[in-house]
Design brief:
Length: 474
């Protein structure tokens, strides 16, 4: 039998840290007027930190009267005090600490190779300070991107920015964003706001970053050729990342053309040819940006995230096939044919009581069909359900954004049929799966009966996969 007495151990080590006179390390933390001297024990520091294990074994460390003298000017006294308490006692109290000090602790724990502490602080910031992070994205990004190991917080920031990029790119301190971070954002397909807004933000950033411009010389009317050349040099690597094909002719004339001098001549000619002759440019990215996907857990194996966003917009009655970000819903997988089997009892038990849901069906041709049930299942028998918010749809493939179809009700009566004995799904006898017909999806043209006006065929299709996602309003 093993007995563990951590509380007593932690208490005794706290006495060693605070009261012992047998220390052999003096650490000077901070710089200028903000400094403090800490006393510690090399054996404990070496045992807890690979950084100190290496540092104290080096011949270059300074000693005075057999005392190790160590300077850490880049770590503030407040941060180093937290680090010592963590090293000696395994304790960390962040409740009353400023976020700036917590960021400092993150940097220090990375440098001192305190992996457990480093991971904990990332999670702590994401869970407890997400609002503060979103209000100070530039500060946080410029901090965490200096730390190669800080992937979790880096990814959180980037994904949050791509969810609401406009507020980020129009923020007052956007111009102080590190150029490598800006480059990475402009490369992303999910950095999805109006391309002209990205252009305006880039020009603003470039002016602030260019010597001789900025607040002292931001009026373009006063610029000379040298000023334009300097701005061109600052933005040379970024210009090809702008998706000019998504900027309208009017926007190009009013907001891009005045900066003709900073765009490489060959590229400018390609862009003009695009606007005049619809010839796609060869020297820039032409694929459109797409919004960060709607929250879906786990990811669908039938459709790509962009199509999930479109379905979410359809739920909000936006039928324009919009790819604009929709964070109003969370999609949770509740049934998967390949995992749960194909029988009515399992299907209905999985879906019953789960609230509104979306059905996705991939057939043998790889075409995708689906429907939205805004009411949900309740194990009803031989029951017609009415709702004005139900719809059915189809995609040509798993990433189709051009040939999709959506059908809403002509008449909301009898839009969904439920019979837990024999029916998987039945949207108005137009898109349905019956247990006794096997693994087949049926399409019928029943719009004349007041149902959905979408399919004009009668067909029976072999099913490859079915997914049902519960839809939760967030």
């Amino acid at each position: 039998m093993n007995s563990i007495f951590h509380s007593g151990l932690s208490k005794d080590l706290s006495l060693i840290l605070n009261d012992s006179d047998d220390f052999n390390v003096i650490i000077q933390a901070g710089e200028n007027q903000n400094t403090k001297e800490f006393r510690a024990h090399s054996v404990i520091l070496r045992a807890r930190s690979p950084y100190f294990k290496t540092a104290f074994s080096s011949s270059w460390i300074a000693k005075k009267d057999n005392m190790i003298i160590f300077n850490k000017p880049n770590v503030t006294p407040i941060v180093f005090d937290m680090i010592l308490k963590y090293i000696y006692m395994g304790e960390l109290v962040l409740t009353n600490q400023s976020v700036e000090d917590i960021l400092g602790l993150l940097i220090a724990s990375d440098e001192l190779l305190l992996e457990e502490l480093f991971e904990y602080i990332q999670d702590y910031l994401i869970k407890g300070y997400n609002s503060w992070i979103q209000q100070n994205f530039v500060l946080v990004l410029n901090t965490v991107f200096k730390l190669a190991s800080c992937k979790k917080l880096q990814n959180y920031c980037l994904e949050s920015i791509c969810t609401n990029p406009r507020s980020f790119i129009t923020a007052e301190n956007f111009s102080s964003l590190d150029k490598c971070i800006l480059y990475g954002l402009l490369e992303r397909d999910d950095f999805a706001i109006q391309e002209i807004d990205i252009w305006d933000g880039l020009i603003k950033w470039g002016i602030e970053q260019t010597p001789g411009l900025g607040n002292m010389n931001c009026n373009r009317a006063n610029w000379n050729q040298e000023n334009y050349e300097a701005l061109k040099k600052t933005l040379s690597q970024f210009i090809p990342l702008i998706r000019f094909v998504k900027i309208s002719r009017a926007e190009f004339y009013d907001q891009v053309r005045p900066y003709k001098a900073i765009i490489p001549k060959n590229l400018y000619e390609e862009i003009k040819e695009f606007y005049y002759k619809d010839t796609l440019p060869k020297s820039i990215i032409i694929t459109p940006r797409r919004p960060a996907s709607t929250i879906i857990n786990p990811a669908s194996t039938i459709i790509k995230p962009e199509l999930v966003t479109i379905v979410a917009n359809w739920i909000d009655r936006n039928d324009s096939n919009s790819l604009s970000s929709n964070n109003n819903y969370k999609f949770n997988l509740i049934y998967l044919k390949s995992r749960d089997g194909f029988d009515c009892a399992t299907f209905n038990n999985k879906c019953s009581g789960q609230g509104p849901f979306v059905v996705l069906v991939r057939v043998e041709s790889k075409k995708i069909y689906g429907g939205y049930n805004p009411i949900g299942y309740a194990l009803r028998s031989n029951k017609w359900i009415s709702s004005s918010n139900s719809f059915i749809f189809s995609f040509e493939n798993d990433q189709d954004i051009y040939n999709m179809k959506i059908g809403r009700l002509i008449n909301e009566n009898r839009c969904i049929y439920e019979n837990y004995h024999s029916t998987f799904i039945d949207f108005g006898y137009q898109l349905f799966i019956k247990c006794y017909y096997g693994s087949r999806l049926f399409l019928e043209n029943n719009c004349e009966k007041g149902f959905y006006d979408i399919f004009n065929c009668i067909d029976s299709l072999l099913i490859e996969e079915i997914e049902v996602f519960g839809v939760v309003k967030i």
